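Need tokens for this chain, all 451 residues.
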Amino acid sequence: MRTCTPFLALSLLMTLAACGQQPSAPTQGKNPVPAAYRDTTGAAWKYSGPASALPLGISSNPLFNATVSARSSWGPIELNTSNGEKAAGDGHPLTMAGKVYSYGLGLHAGAEISYSASQPTGVSCQLTAEVGVDAEVGHKGSVSFKVYADGVNVYDSGVLRGGDPAAHLVATLPSAKVLKLVVENGGDDYYYDHADIADPKISCGLAPAPATLTVTPASSNVTIYDLTSVTVPLNITSNDPALHGPFDVRLEEQPDSSVFDPSVVTVLDLQLKTPQIDDLGSQSIAFSAPGINRNNRRSSAEVDIIISKNGVTLARVPLNVVLLYPEVSGKFTPSAVSGHDGDVISGTFQLTLKPKLDLDVIPSIELIDSYNPLFFSTAVVTGSPQDLSTTDATVLNYPIGITLHNARYAPSLPYTTTDDYYAQFNGIGVFGPFNKGLQVRVPLNVTITGP
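Here are the structure tokens for all 451 residues:
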């Protein structure tokens, strides 16, 4: 249900008619403004009235009955006639570009009208009018019209000039305490700036439900590995057929409720790769896990996908995200070496990580003998790796040289032992032991045949 009421609102200028009626034009030459409210010292006119409530409810009538203040720079604001000159009641029928209007307000640039307003919750109101320069100045004059709700500009006509057709003013009125109409000059001077506000009306009705999105992920449970990306398909619908993308996307990780020490922050540290989606329908977002320090690592978390437009949140979609370490393995080729003290044997070390990782750079590696203080081999990377990756795994083959030594410490010759190496991979995340990088333990069988 909607009602509309003529917006002829200076309470000392008129008595508002019932909804739908148009007030009659005043008698020409008769001043409807009490002398106590006229500035008789010059052309400027102002009014200050009682600040009673201005109801904007659906059933309230009349809508406008509390003009708080008004002013105009060349005579009083006229009811149902143009501004005319500085005397009261000296205007003409409201006319813009040849069209005559039977009711409205005649003003001069440098004018303001303020109303006390009280708009009930759940009620949406809209002000409409035809505005422009009155024909009594011909093609002279330039003005602009603005509407403010609690100081917020909700309409700006831009510059309108004499002879231009009337502009259609449409201003959506939020719940506000003060509604103000302003007429300014066109950015030049105030000569001939006779302004009309014709056929002003306010219509009110129940406010439409706020626009929202319904976002359904393909699954609310997502598993991701360190140094990988995951794509989450989404189906997006809206309760407002006029609402379309693009939409902004961000991720918000919920705090870890199991950690009671506020100085300890545990995070997944997911990185969003699709900060915007195009429109409704079938869409998807992608995010990655960059690989982080064990000390503040979480194994799972609730992560909200937040979709917004122009800073307004339209949907919040919770996901349960589980973070896993990649599966890491390594092997020496050959897996067993033999020779004399000082021999150097060429081979390879192959690193395999599953699933395939998102690597910006190929990692460097160190082969560290972990247990034997009297180790019998030293393995060193001798060149750049060969990339043998598949769709399912990252596979890197590093050329190495293995030097045999320490035969004098062997209990007897030939002597066979196992050197346990840790292969430490640098540059692919800091989530291994001691925060030094990803590590994997790989054995190498070594036989020292002689000095």
